[in-house]
Amino acid sequence: MLDRLTSRPKLTDDQKRRVPPGQYVTEKWPVLHYGSVPRTDLASWDFKVWGQVEEPFTFTWDEFLAMPRKALHTDIHCVTRWSRLDADFEGVPIQHILQRARLEPTARFVVEHCEQGYTTNLPLAVFDDDDVILADKADGQPLTPEHGGPLRLVLPKRYFWKSGKWLRGLEFRETDQIGFWERYGYHNDADPWKEERFSD
How many Cα atoms are found within 13 Å in the side-chain-facing hemisphere of 83? Predict the structure, then answer.
């Protein structure tokens, strides 16, 4: 049900508790990105895992589709202040990738490498969690190119730019390496509950 004055959904008390400070709830999924939307040939697409790992590897799209699957029902929050509650994603749990890669004890950070040279970064302690997946479906449908298809990360506990669109690789590192938006003033930690939108 929409509030007639704001055209925004009326929220239950439980839903209100799930909205971080400074955010508003939308039932839509706004499209936001820098640059053009890449077009992908799945026949030649591949994904690379490397860095501080014992078993670096690359997989194709068909190999990705054969991996264990997981459904994720979650809320997502954008730094531009919208939140979308009860979003549904499906994909490969990040634990499957981590187990296959066998991270070195020195690995403490991950850099997401995306199409067109875009990157974003995360501490491994945030990345290695049950609610993090490599998603190829949203709301029961294949992820559209505008929303990061064929593959994006979904990491709900950070502002959504940390869930890199058009993901093509994961680099595990001993030291942090800030990504594209972080270099342009976005906060390195990006916790929506602390309103970590921009660096000081």
Answer: 24
* CB-based burial label for 56 (10 Å; 0-12, 13-18, 19+): middle
Question: How far out from the chain centre does Cα 4 lie?
Answer: 33
pLDDT digits (tens, 9 = 90+) for 43-97: 999 999 999 999 999 999 999 999 999 999 999 999 999 999 999 999 999 999 9
Q: What is the pLDDT of residues 19-52, one digit of tens each?
A: 999 999 998 888 877 778 999 999 999 999 999 9
Q: Which of 52, 49, 57 is nearest to 113 (CA)?
A: 49
Q: What is the CA 7 to chain-centroid distance, rounded?
A: 28
Give the residue from 32, 56, 35 showing the smallest Cα distance to 46: 56
Would you call the peptide bond into 145 cis, given omega within 30 degrees of 0 as the criterion? no
Identify the structural domains of the chain with CATH numbers, from first to last. 45-194 (3.90.420.10)
Q: Give the pLDDT score at 7.
A: 52
Residue 51 falls in which region: left (phi positive, over 0), alpha (psi -120 to 50) or beta: left
Q: Which amino acid is at 33?
A: H
Distance from C-alpha of 8 to C-alpha of 122, rounded to nearest angstrom: 32
